[in-house]
Structure to design on (346 residues):
């Protein structure tokens, strides 16, 4: 064969070999520079400490986060006043039962107000973190890599949010108790029975709390609204600066979960679950904030890879997280969502 004819033949054979050897998917990954599209580095969720530059914001956010465990404990211990309320409704003329139900519900309403108040504090903390993690001249990837203590706090907010909402969904008593409280206040049928609670939870506060607890995932809704408001209020800051923080965090978590060299650096198995929760949390938040959502082909989040990583974990650890992707995202059922992604979450 002449050299002139051999060269095209050689190139064709070489590319055929590459495709057979590496698989079309792997070759496409190289051609599309997948690694560039999906940033990756080790984010030290266990040991990151604030630098001098991070200290001021870190202290402000830490003041909020240090109360998060007590909020979760309070929610977990919430038993409700279902029996007392049923007794009072079934015996409307028995004032003793009316008083018993009322006195059971009032402390619970005060507790629900505390949870709601914490969501407002969390909203401000998140906006403070977003301001730090999106400001020029650094890219979101540079921010997250350089300011790991703030990135860790951002992750802790997402972790708390998913845990709170998971617990809330299992406690239907919350809405039943609050509905009874509002009905009783509006009817004003019980006289001189601790009605000074209205100074604690007035009508305006009750309306706001009612909207909060009516959400299936109230803390996630709070974060979503806070992030959207942050974008709206900072008109000179491109939307991508904010959404790229979320997509970068999702990518970093995914890569850490699928890379043994990274997971071997975790000191606790709980960090693995923490990392999964954070990944799912930023995906959901991204899906609510980005106009096209997280599932669209143009999304900067590798949804197929993220779901695959979750499905490789023990089922008990990820069932709730997969359900969160199915039921609390905004764009999963859009026509633009690839069928293979929908199939993976069925």
């Amino acid at each position: 064969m002449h050299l002139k004819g051999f060269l095209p033949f050689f190139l064709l054979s070489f590319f055929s070999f590459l495709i057979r050897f590496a698989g079309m998917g792997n070759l496409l990954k190289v051609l599309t520079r997948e690694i560039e599209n999906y940033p990756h580095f080790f984010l030290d969720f266990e040991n990151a400490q604030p630098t001098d530059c991070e200290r001021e914001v870190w202290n402000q956010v830490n003041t909020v986060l240090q109360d998060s465990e007590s909020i979760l404990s309070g929610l977990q211990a919430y038993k409700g006043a279902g029996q007392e309320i049923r007794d009072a409704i079934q015996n409307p003329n028995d004032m003793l039962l009316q008083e018993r139900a009322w006195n059971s519900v009032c402390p619970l309403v005060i507790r629900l107000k505390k949870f709601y108040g914490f969501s407002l504090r969390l909203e401000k903390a998140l906006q403070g973190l977003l301001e730090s993690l999106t400001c020029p001249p650094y890219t979101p990837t540079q921010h997250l890599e350089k300011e790991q203590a703030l990135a860790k706090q951002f992750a802790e907010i997402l972790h708390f949010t998913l845990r709170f909402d998971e617990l809330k969904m299992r406690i239907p008593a919350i809405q039943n108790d609050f509905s009874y409280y509002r009905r009783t206040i509006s009817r004003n049928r019980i006289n001189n029975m601790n009605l000074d609670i209205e100074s604690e939870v007035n009508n305006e506060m009750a309306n706001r709390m009612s909207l909060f607890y009516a959400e299936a995932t109230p803390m996630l809704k709070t974060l979503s609204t806070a992030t959207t408001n942050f974008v709206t209020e900072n008109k000179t800051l491109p939307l991508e600066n904010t959404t790229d923080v979320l997509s970068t965090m999702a990518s970093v978590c995914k890569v850490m979960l699928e890379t043994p060299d990274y997971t071997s650096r975790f000191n606790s198995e709980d960090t693995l679950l923490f990392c999964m929760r954070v990944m799912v949390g930023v995906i959901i938040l991204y899906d609510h904030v980005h106009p096209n959502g997280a599932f669209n082909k143009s999304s900067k989040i590798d949804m197929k890879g993220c779901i695959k990583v979750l499905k490789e974990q023990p089922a008990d650890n990820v069932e709730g997280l997969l359900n969160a992707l199915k039921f609390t995202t905004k764009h999963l059922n859009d026509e633009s969502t690839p069928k293979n992604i929908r199939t993976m979450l069925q």
About this structure: Residues 137 and 307 are 33 Å apart (CA to CA). Residues 95-134 form the longest helix (40 residues). The chain has 17 helices and no strands.
